[in-house]
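hey can u check if this looks right to u? its 518 residues, i copy pasted from the old doc so theres a chance i mangled smth
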Amino acid sequence: MRRSGTRNRRRGAAAVAALVTLSTALAGQQLAVAGGGPTASVPAPKLNWKPCAPNTAYDCATAKVPLDYAKPRGRTIELAVVKRKATGPGRRLGTLFFNPGGPGGPGTIQFPQNYELFPKQVRQRFDLVSWDPRGIGNSTAVNCFKTPEQAARWNAGHPVGFPVGQAERRQWIASYRELGRLCEKRDPELLRHVGTVDTARDLDQLRRAVGDRKLTYMGISYGTILGATYANLYPSKVRAMTLDSNIAPSAWTNNGSDDARLPTFLRMGSDRSAAATLDRFLSLCGSASTARCAFSAGSPAATRKKFDELTDRLRTHPVGTWTYAKTVSDTISSLYIVHPGWTQLAVRLQQLWNGQVPSAVPAPPAPPTPYPIPYLGEEQGAAVICGDSPNPRNPWLYHRYEQASAARTGDAGRHWTWAAEPCATWPAVAATRYTGPWNKPTPPILVVGTAYDPSTPYSNARAMSRELANARLLTNTGYGHTALLNPSRCVNAHESRYFIDGTLPRPGTRCAQDAPPF
């Protein structure tokens, strides 16, 4: 579910992947509210837009919102907001709000980095606005460490990727239990108010602040659950909404039940989708020359065998810090963005095959705003996922889930099983969670699903289109996580028509990506 920018995306995927439930110590609390709609009226925040920096096209502002919407006169928090004005020509139609996913994706960083990927006509007709959701990045953020040095020590205290063997499992569980303890100690009130319902309320406040009567919105990955939640809390306030690379609401909420028998990502089917995408990566690589895919062994079958031999070798003979688990998790996360991600992944795998420590991945370009790259610790995504989505609360059961998933999906199952385990000992529950119904009447919503997505399966896009009251599914017959970050002129054209005049693609419409892998 994750970030933009190649390096940020891989790092973020591991962070998002690393979280999901509620502590048994909180079992007696009110865990879920099957509604959570609008609360008492709260004045819209004032956005004093100013140029983010000299000679930049971006404007910045800070919004103040209540920490707890049930206590509008209580503690407030800040949201960092960024805008790019409509470029014209043509009449400006309003504001399009964008959430980059995660959870944990900072819009102030990822939106400017990826602005050029939005459809040109959309950029012409709408002001584009994004923000760091509460708890994230440059907004009032969850940070469970007193110093960067303490954060670094914690990060070094558990295996990279996922644990292998009993000793590493003990180390992993103890480390994430300690993270939960530190977070609860630092700001327990904030932890209970960074969930999706509170963020949806923030989004409605931002809509009011820019003066739009109804919301125009694009959400990718986790942003699809945020969008679906908003649509069902404020169905009369939706103008147009595109949800790209979806999480099925029924999977996210465990069908509204707190008795979770599987971790969130296994309920979603992320393990199966990642395995299918990895298989396509190896097949396409094997069908290409080594000039185009460095890891190619000359055929799909030979390249799959080569990958299996590499991972088996790394179990007992790591290359520097590149263990079996680190390599598997890096592989899954690197499938998110096809260009240049897949080509770079093939180079790293070949270097490991040759016994060489892989070259460092180039950093993404700095965003053209004055916002610094913020602290983006794992606890920020954890606070959202673990507070919102039920997971098994016994950490010692996750090895069983791993074994069952790996029997079906191989290495990908290990990655996605342990991605959710930190939530087993997370200390906070979202004060309000929306668990349905998901079929409140709204204007048509456009749902985009990619056939081979290593994080949010295409089956989840189908589920989202069924569970919403009024949705149209657009199929992207490509690879990677989100059509936005893996561009398709066909998808962009349909999104432009939809956002501008409400025209939906015909039922069953399929699009292709502009540039296939390799």
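Confidence is low (pLDDT under 50) at residues 2-36.
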